[in-house]
Design brief:
By secondary structure, the chain is of the alpha/beta class. It has nine helices and six strands; from the N terminus they run ααβαβαβαααβββαα. Strand 5 and strand 6 form a beta hairpin. The structure holds iron/sulfur cluster (SF4). Iron/sulfur cluster binds near residues 112, 115, 116, 120 and 223.
């Protein structure tokens, strides 16, 4: 078991390591107890490419919210087939089906935090219960929240989050894509530089921040997977809210 001090020291050491070196360490340390998540957008390609080559049968969680663009689903199918990926689709808890179905068209706009919790955070939290470590593709240059992240982060529930690409920039992603001739999400050429769910994503200009098209004008920049929403206290508060509304 890694102590908090050891995790902190390793995380500092990893600031000088490549994503490949960090993932090789993770593979050695966690073997079968590690999973990765991916939203299958253009910027996801480098980490998917690197990690799936170092850990061939790595479980890759794709959160199927039911609100994805058709292009995302087709792109996910294409990459999974061509790269022979071990993808695990995650869905919302069936106990919340009736509640969510009644609000299919309104929930993303009326209560995006709740919608993200039902469709993204809770399925991910449930899936990760069987693992000790989770590889994520966040970068410090994406949002103000991510700017303060660490390469290794011990979560409240004991899960170790590993962010191998944290120090990469947009330019690094572009360079890796070009050097390895990786495919782009089909909506990139239409101005969707960060692609999430259809009700919460718009096309943006070339000079806008990468995630400017996500929840635009709604004061939200994160779905909750990479923020305090993942902590047990906040999760239980939101679950209570949903359960109260269901009753
Ligand atoms: S991104 Fe939008 S549609 Fe997707 S889960 Fe969050 S609020 Fe719902």
């Amino acid at each position: 078991m890694l102590s908090v001090q050891k995790i902190k020291r390793l995380s500092e050491e990893f600031e000088e390591k490549t994503p490949q070196e960090i993932i090789e360490w993770a593979e050695t340390r966690f073997s079968q107890n590690i999973a990765m998540s991916s939203s299958f957008q253009t910027q996801s390609m480098p980490l998917l490419h690197i990690a799936s080559r170092i850990i061939p049968n790595l479980p890759i969680f794709f959160i199927d919210t039911g609100y994805h663009f058709w292009e995302t689903l087709m792109f996910r199918e294409q990459i999974a087939r061509e790269w022979d990926l071990n993808i695990v689709d995650l869905y919302r808890d069936h106990r919340w089906d009736a509640y969510a179905r009644q609000r299919t068209r309104t929930l993303p706009l009326e209560d995006a935090d709740l919608c993200c919790h039902i469709h993204k955070v809770h399925p991910m939290q449930t899936a990760l219960r069987d693992y000790k470590a989770w590889i994520s593709g966040i970068r410090r240059d994406q949002t103000s929240v991510r700017a303060n992240a660490q390469i290794l982060e011990l979560q409240n529930d004991g899960l170790l989050k590993i962010n191998p690409l944290l120090n990469w920039t947009r330019a690094d992603v572009k360079q890796y894509m070009e050097e390895n001739d990786l495919p782009s999400h089909p909506l990139l050429e239409k101005g969707y530089r960060s692609v999430g769910c259809a009700p919460c994503t718009i096309a943006i200009g070339v000079n806008d921040d990468e995630r400017a098209g996500r929840w635009t004008g709604r004061g939200k920049i994160e779905c909750g997977l990479h923020t305090e929403l993942f902590k047990k206290k906040d999760v239980s508060e939101i679950q209570q809210k949903i359960e109260l509304e269901i009753k």
